User: Which sequence fits this backbone?
């Protein structure tokens, strides 16, 4: 019997194993160490390995992704220890032979021996990777549909065939002032019409009967408007089960349509004299009406144009966009747009078109619109664009000028120091040339900064001749290259006057540019600049021998945006700027011109005297105070710091150099200094913050601070110097000027 039982057990075991191998799910047996002790053929297929390669393999270390291993190991230890029940169903990723991740849905149980001890786990696993992917795609599709549904700009409902609201979009909720949950479950006609039954003309009844898309223009009492109601069936097995109901507000269009029918004659008389063009088109784009303004602007006989396509008059480059917009207008896009039309003489005129669909019995019968001639406006826009380009160029010039200030200061300073040493005469001459050219470059840089910097009006006592020369330096190269010979006759008898040097520099640059452009037409010529005093009036003349200004333009020359140059070669702003600045200074500007002879601009400025505010002024003559003094130099550019230290050390002072404000603060806490020379703008702690620190913790040093800066024109920097009264040197500067100010500060301070 024992043998029979054994044979029976063997037969049953074989059958059971065969069953496991033909199962359509993975059957997996793990021992207490999570090693595979049995796996069926489905498991082999899923993992891509044979049974001999799998038996004895660590399941967790081999087939569980790295990110999940620690968690799975911890749970498995708890299960085989009998501390937790295995999960009934559990999903987790595994990795097959090719490294691909699969999602497996497991059903787990524990295996016990005859004594009830847990010896492992038995799991059946179903590959649900595709199912999960399908679920994600289905959810994405649902989310996309919902987003589109909510983005529809018109109130939109989804209804069942009993008129019950199943779903509403945001536009519907906002239009009716109700939350979506307040609308769902109610009949659409209750909310839209405030009735207990559907209105007679409701398209819902027709769509339920016919199963076809329906559109109807209806009055929606609760919204006090006329709406185009579109109903589209949602079918299942050929039967309508739901309806998408969209209500587009056409109240304004209906009003226009009604008024057009009732008052066409009144409309015609109304538009006869206006400057804008009233037009209408049929659905094929043929002209059905043009107001008289079209004939005045385009020189056409309007009667000859009726029935012709509007595309015949559109610039070829603008035609594709115009046709696209025409189609969009019939689909609901009503935004204004711009294009060019051709007049009878072949001239192109810029117009802006605004249009509306016209309906009759709920159907669009054409377009009604307005054309506005915007040719002058477009010209002004182009001129403003040129102005913006000039502004951007100013910003670039300002940045370049500031970047050049530090190296120029170093070149000016070291060349000055070297020139004082004993050396062969020819080398000294070369050094002198370097020094003079660096000084010349520094003046050009300063002129660039002055011209490019935007600043509030800042009047002070100025020398007109110097401002003219500064302005000329900015244009000298271009004038010389284009063979414009410039002659100066600047009177030394002209006194200083109270004015804004930056604004006057703009005046003179604009006059130089104007003469330059005029003389380019002759491929060169002569520009004569003259100043003289007439009683208490300073007279400034810019006279060229260019082609002159036509008589018809002379009286318009100072008008804003007036220019005789083609687009891109003149903004029409320069001379209007000249006029405004001169007037603001209490002066006058006039022009005399003769065709073929030339043009002379004359500026008259009154001599104004005013005591100037305190400025950081100094001379190159200086005296070194007696005694030993220590100076702290704070500058983040190494070469400039070296120059400053060299100059000050050579004068007999003790110098300590620092690369930024933070280093300077540490130096001040370590040593005593008699004077601080600091740059304004540095990486880290800058000059203003360093001043604030010294003012708080070392107030005795506040009056012994000398700043060097390349940004003296900046509003923030000006305000700082005005409030603090600190002395400063504007980059680039010479060694003599530096030592002069150091001497002044040390001599004026009481130790």
Assistant:
């Amino acid at each position: 019997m024992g043998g029979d039982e054994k044979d029976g057990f063997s037969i049953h075991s074989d059958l059971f194993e065969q069953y496991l191998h033909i199962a359509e799910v993975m059957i997996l047996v793990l021992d207490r160490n999570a090693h595979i002790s049995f796996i069926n053929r489905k498991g082999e297929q899923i993992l891509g390995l044979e049974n001999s390669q799998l038996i004895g393999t660590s399941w967790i270390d081999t087939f569980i992704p790295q990110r999940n291993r620690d968690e799975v190991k911890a749970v498995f230890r708890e299960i085989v220890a009998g501390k937790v029940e295995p999960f009934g169903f559990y999903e987790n990723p595994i990795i097959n032979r090719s490294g691909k991740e699969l999602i497996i849905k497991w059903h787990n149980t524990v295996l016990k021996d005859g004594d009830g001890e847990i010896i492992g786990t038995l799991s059946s696993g179903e590959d649900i990777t595709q199912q999960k992917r399908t679920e994600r795609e289905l959810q994405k599709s649902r989310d996309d549909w919902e987003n589109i549904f909510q983005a529809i700009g018109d109130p939109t409902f989804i209804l069942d065939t009993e008129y019950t609201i199943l779903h509403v979009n945001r536009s519907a909720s906002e239009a009716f002032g109700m939350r979506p949950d307040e609308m769902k479950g109610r009949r659409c006609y209750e909310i839209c019409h405030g009735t207990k039954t559907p209105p007679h003309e409701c398209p819902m009844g027709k769509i339920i009967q016919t199963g076809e898309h329906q559109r109807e223009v209806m009055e929606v009492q609760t919204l006090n408007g006329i709406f185009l109601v579109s109903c589209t069936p949602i079918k299942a097995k050929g039967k309508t089960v739901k309806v998408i109901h969209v209500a587009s507000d056409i109240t304004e269009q209906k009003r226009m349509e009604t008024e057009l029918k009732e008052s066409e004659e009144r409309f015609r008389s109304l538009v006869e004299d206006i400057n804008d063009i009233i037009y209408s088109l049929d659905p094929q784009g043929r002209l059905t009406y043009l107001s008289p303004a079209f004939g005045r602007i385009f020189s056409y006989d309007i009667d000859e144009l009726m029935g012709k396509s509007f595309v015949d008059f559109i610039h070829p480059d603008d035609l594709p966009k115009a046709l696209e917009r025409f189609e969009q207008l019939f689909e609901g896009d009503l935004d204004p747009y711009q294009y060019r039309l051709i007049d009878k003489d072949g001239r192109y005129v810029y117009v802006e078109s605004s249009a509306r669909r016209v309906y009759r019995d709920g159907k669009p019968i054409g377009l009604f619109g307005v054309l506005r001639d915007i040719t002058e406006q477009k010209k002004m826009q182009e001129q403003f664009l040129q102005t913006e380009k000039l502004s951007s160029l100013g910003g670039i010039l300002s940045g370049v000028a500031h970047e050049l200030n530090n190296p120029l200061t170093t070149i000016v300073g070291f060349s000055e120091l070297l020139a004082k040493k004993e050396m062969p005469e020819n080398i000294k001459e070369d050094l002198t040339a370097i020094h003079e050219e660096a000084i010349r470059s520094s003046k050009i840089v300063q002129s660039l900064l002055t011209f490019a910097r935007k600043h509030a009006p800042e009047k002070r006592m100025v020398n007109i001749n110097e401002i003219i020369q500064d302005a000329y330096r900015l244009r000298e190269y271009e004038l010389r290259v284009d063979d414009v010979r410039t002659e100066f006759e600047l009177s030394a008898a002209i006194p200083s006057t109270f004015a804004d040097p930056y604004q006057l520099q703009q005046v003179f640059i604009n006059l130089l540019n104007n003469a330059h452009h005029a003389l380019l037409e002759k491929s060169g010529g002569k520009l004569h600049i003259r100043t003289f005093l007439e009683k208490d009036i300073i007279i400034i003349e810019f006279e060229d021998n260019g082609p002159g200004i036509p008589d018809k333009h002379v009286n318009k020359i100072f008008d804003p945006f007036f220019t005789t140059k083609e687009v891109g070669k003149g903004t029409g702003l320069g001379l209007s700027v000249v006029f405004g600045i001169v007037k603001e200074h209490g002066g006058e500007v006039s022009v005399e011109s003769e065709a073929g002879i030339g043009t002379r601009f004359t500026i008259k400025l009154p001599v104004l005297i005013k005591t100037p505010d305190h400025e950081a002024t100094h001379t190159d003559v200086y005296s070194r105070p007696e005694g030993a003094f220590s100076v702290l130099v704070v500058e983040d550019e190494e070469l400039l710091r070296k120059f400053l230290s060299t100059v000050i050390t050579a004068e007999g002072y003790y110098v300590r150099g620092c690369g930024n404000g933070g280093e300077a603060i540490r130096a001040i806490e370590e040593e005593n200094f008699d004077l601080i020379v600091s740059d304004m703008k540095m990486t880290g702690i800058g000059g203003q913050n360093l001043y604030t620190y010294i003012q708080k913790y070392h107030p005795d040093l506040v009056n012994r601070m000398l700043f060097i800066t390349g940004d003296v024109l900046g509003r923030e920097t000006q305000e700082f110097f005005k409030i603090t009264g600190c002395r400063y040197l504007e980059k680039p500067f010479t060694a003599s000027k530096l030592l002069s100010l150091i001497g002044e500060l040390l001599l004026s301070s009481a130790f």
